[in-house]
Amino acid sequence: MKQHPVAAARLTESELDQIRMLIEQRSAILFDSSRERFFSTRVREYLEEKKLSSGAELLGLMRGSSVEYEALLERLLTQETSFFRYPAVFDALSKTILPEVQERKFWENPRTLRIWSAGCSTGEEPYSIAIAVSDALKFAEAWEIEILATDISRRALRHAEKGLYPKRSLQDVSMGQVENYFTATKHGFQVKPRIRRMISFAQMNLVEPVYVGKIDCIFCMNVLMYFSDERRLAILRRFYDALEPGGYFLLGHAETLSNVPMKFESVTLGDCRLYRKPGALESRRAPALVEGAS
Ligand SMILES: C[S@@+](CC[C@H](N)C(=O)[O-])C[C@H]1O[C@@H](n2cnc3c(N)ncnc32)[C@H](O)[C@@H]1O
To answer: How far is the C-alpha of 246 from the C-alpha of 100, rounded, in Å?
Structure first.
């Protein structure tokens, strides 16, 4: 992209570094050299748009007001997502994870199922989870189901809560699922209330330790890759603690827990790798421990 000569003059390298550090401290998102161009372009565009005179002025605003800080942060987030983004993961959810939870909790009363979509973006991921659960779970009415969907971006969450999507975004949703779980409106396809009711949306910065209770399965796909090793490890520890024994942790396709010192068991299903917290169904399988596990 062509750089604006005046805007470039207003923003020094040192100011850019300070903005980068502020973002990293508060959100954990790291803009390393591979994302340097993206970062500086977005900050310059923001300066122009807000008609600010310098990077120093922007820094002052960001330090003095969380609204200003969040406004820039929104520009810097990558929110790419889609329904059933990795089909193999949803297959694993339907065919392995949910049947295990059903077996483990068969005699529990109430029978709860809690799944967390951490970094849910505009909602396609938690709605895909809710649809997969509705399709797969026998006697769904006998369960107390909650899908917790969190993101740092208020803008993405507003979109998610509407549950309204253009037809083109439903290309990986089967015709039967579209019929069962969406209503066609003149503005697009709206997720039906019974799916919407399964989900609790909440703004949450993963860096801040927030109590979420016990969870059966955590989806954290394409989020941790933007964090430093140290931050990633701290968040992974919290995920591990939040999981029920036998609970699953799911990452995006290009992500792995290799060399992470955690006690997750690695389970490979087709071309999908899942991570399982030990402690339940021990006798039924002997999974490989994650490399580096203590
Ligand atoms: C690339 S999207 C991934 C969406 C979805 N999980 C998927 O894989 O399709 C990454 C999401 O992580 C969110 N995110 C980034 N940093 C975060 C943080 N510190 N706390 C919570 N969410 C964060 C972004 O706002 C964005 O919606």
So the answer is: 9
2-33: pLDDT as tens digits: 555 444 548 999 999 999 999 999 999 999 88
The last residue of one of the domains, among 18, 52, 76, is 76
Q: Pick from 28, 55, 76: which residue ends a domain? A: 76
pTM for the complete prediction?
A: 0.91
27 and 126 in one domain? no
Give the ligand 1 atom nearest the CA of 82. Answer: 9
Ligand 1 mutation target, pool 80, 121, 225, most atoms within 8 A of CB = 121
pLDDT digits (tens, 9 = 90+) for 259-286: 888 899 999 998 899 999 998 755 444 4
CA–CA separation, 83 and 126 (whole Å) = 9
Instruction: Give the pLDDT score at 290.
Output: 52
Q: Is the CB of 80 under 6 A from ligand 1?
A: yes
Query: Within a 10 A sphere around the Cβ of 248, how many other Cβ atoms?
Result: 25
The answer to whether 149 touches 117, Cβ cutoff 8 Å, is: yes
Domain annotation covers residue 118: yes
140-181, pLDDT tens digit by residue? 788 999 999 999 999 999 999 999 999 999 999 999 999 999
Q: What is the distance in A from the centroid of ligand 1 to the CA of 231?
A: 14
Cα 243 to ligand 1 centre (Å): 20
Residue 119 Cβ < 6 Å to ligand 1:
yes
CATH number assigned to the domain comprising residue 24 = 1.10.155
Give the residue, by CA position, lying nearest to ligand 1 atom 6: 221
For ligand 1, whether the C-beta of 79 sits within 6 Å is: yes
Q: Is 185 left (phi over 0), alpha (psi -120 to 50) or beta?
A: beta
Q: What residue numbers bound the domain in which 12 lies?
A: 5-76
195 and 234 in a single domain? The answer is yes
What pLDDT digit, counting tens, does each position of 224-258 carry?
999 999 999 999 999 999 999 999 999 999 999 98
Q: What angle do CA 65, 69, 71 make, to 5 degrees?
A: 115
Ligand 1 centroid to Cα of residue 288, in Å, is 29
